[in-house]
Amino acid sequence: MKSIVITNKQVAIVGGGPGGLTLARLLQAKGIAVTVYERDVNSAIRVQGATLDLHVESGLKAIEAAGLMKRFEETYRPGADKGRVVDQQGNIIYDEHDQAGEKAFGDALFRPEIDRADLRSLLVASLQADTVVWDRQLVDLSPVGDGWQLSFKNGITAFADLIIGADGANSKVRSVITPITPFYAGTTILQGNVENASVRAPTMYELLKGGKIYAHVEEKYVHVSAKGDGSIDFYVSLIRPENWAKASGIDFSDPTQRSAWFEDEFSGWGQVWFELFDQTGVPFLVRPQYCVPFDQHWEAQSSITVLGDAAHIAPPTGEGVNLAMLDALELSECLTSPSFLNTQSAIATYEKQMLARGSDEAQVAMDTVAWMHSQNASMQLVQLLTGSSGE
Ligand SMILES: Cc1cc2nc3c(=O)[nH]c(=O)nc-3n(C[C@H](O)[C@H](O)[C@H](O)COP(=O)(O)OP(=O)(O)OC[C@H]3O[C@@H](n4cnc5c(N)ncnc54)[C@H](O)[C@@H]3O)c2cc1C
User: Where is the FAD-binding domain (predicted)?
Assistant: First the structure.
């Protein structure tokens, strides 16, 4: 019987996000020796970010292939996928909670939500003990023989035959593969979280009803989501120059300066929003958004590749985690298929479809950025949610 091209190779995955951990699980299930090197200092660190909806054709497909569907069904948050489109006073324009017909597992359009931290825990728990090595921020990769030496910020080094960069938007691994850099997408996201939200932001907490809220007003986009730990995550997306936050001179980590900025920028908006803005804790993140060139391409190498945001960062449209997990699935299939003669051809096949898909999504994401910040974005969103053309 033909063997697979990575038999007896030591595989290092850099980054323990959804993409990297999914790949680790899928490879380990096929008997491959794999280690995940993650920057976060330990597994208990608080994972920031909104809830994630997984899609049948991508994220859920990977979960299924990883043999984790039962665990996922026990962990996802029923009802968290329902959203409300609201105006700047918090009046509801469209309410998914009112719509008839519950979707469920098995429906092609069912998009169950899971908190980012729960997804990470689920994936880490599915791995053999010590697969994830925490506190390993990669700072350098140098070729050694046919493999690589990984050097971490804490001075520790490691060796691997095959490197997979799953290290997100500012990927260190990507820069070893290609000089192509993402371009500024024209928007900057401010992201915050309010803990114990039923007490600290009660009006917004009620309005959320355990789901999501979308507001598109004055070319701003505000996205709010309830999380399973009782907190509320929100982000504000604004059209701004790339260096706007730095150039503004505002210290967004300072609650007083931050609140003053929100008061000015959101003047005329209802009090419900200021519950979020004034109650947000630390860290408060300022994230300029980047997108890969639509025609990005590189020659496949034999011992290094990338997936997820490291490969094809784009502004958020609700696809990023799903694409990272689908990349992981397809890469695991290529690396463990007996039909490839060497790792280079396995990686080339994976990268061809991954780059094409990433390019399509980058174009969709840039189109989405444009309409989401347009004057009639709320109506466009309602049309999207109801499947109506608006004509
Ligand atoms: C505001 C916002 C909202 C979003 N909302 C959604 C959404 O609703 N749905 C959705 O599907 N996507 C969403 N996305 C996109 C999504 O977060 C990403 O596409 C997704 O997390 C990519 O997964 P990944 O595994 O490739 O990378 P990441 O999730 O970024 O994981 C990378 C991992 O690598 C680690 N790491 C980074 N550098 C190093 C290093 N040098 N050494 C070692 N480890 C390192 C990081 O700590 C992290 O654990 C959103 C993005 C943003 C900014």
Answer: 10-89, 305-358
192 lines ligand 1 (CB under 6 A): no
**Feature table: binding site for FAD:** 53, 116, 309
Which atom of ligand 1 is closest in space to residue 318's alpha carbon? 9
Q: How far apart are CA 164 and CA 105, in angstroms?
A: 31
Pick among 3.40.430.10, 3.10.20.740, 3.50.50.60, 1.25.40.10: CATH of 10-55+116-182+293-369: 3.50.50.60
Is the fold of 10-55+116-182+293-369 the same as that of 183-291? Answer: no
Distance 50 CA to ligand 1 centre (A): 11
Residue 123, amino acid: L
Name the β-bridge partners of 86: 92
Q: What is the largest CA-CA distance in the chain?
A: 70
295 Cα to the center of ligand 1, angstroms? 22
pLDDT in tens, 255-296: 999 999 999 999 999 999 999 999 999 889 999 999 999 999
The DSSP 8-state label assigned to residue 182 in this structure reads P
The class that CATH gives domain 183-291 is alpha beta
* CA dihedral (192, 186, 291, 243) positive or negative: negative
* Residue 311 CB less than 6 A away from ligand 1: no
Query: Given the CA of residue 37, which atom of ligand 1 is nearest to it?
Result: 43
Q: Is the CB of 359 under 6 A from ligand 1?
A: no
The domain segmentation of the chain, as residue ranges, is 10-55+116-182+293-369, 183-291
**Which residue type, as a one-letter code, is found at position 108?**
A
The residue type found at 280 is: T
**């009803």: which residue's tokens?**
209
